[in-house]
Structure prediction request, 125 residues.
Amino acid sequence: MNIFYVIITSVFLTLAMSIPYDAIEKSFEKNDASAIVNLGEEKILLDILGKEGVYSKSQAGLVLKGFFSRKPGNSFDFVFKGKETVQGAFAIGNYTSRKEKFRVTIHFKKHSEKYKIESLSIESN
Prediction:
């Protein structure tokens, strides 16, 4: 019976520490800037189409919301998910808005057993 609890606990801890790829994909598909920045640190480095800055979560939400209003999309998928390490990880995805494609690069940093978005870059593909 003890081995059962060990296995359940291990699975739970592994899921709790993983990067929320599904939530990020769904948020991009819905153009939900708030949901994306809520998965980030208190300060997030954004580089959107060459305009770079470090923003608080609320500011980052407004900047990302502005991008989504100019380039609304409905398709997002990760093409690469880097190895999760003690320091962090990164992932690359494609965001499609009408006939335009954008490359999205996200860097994650590990804090207190959770991975949070440290930087997000969107560039023309």
User: Anything to note?
Assistant: The chain has one domain: 19-124. The two ends are 53 Å apart (CA to CA).
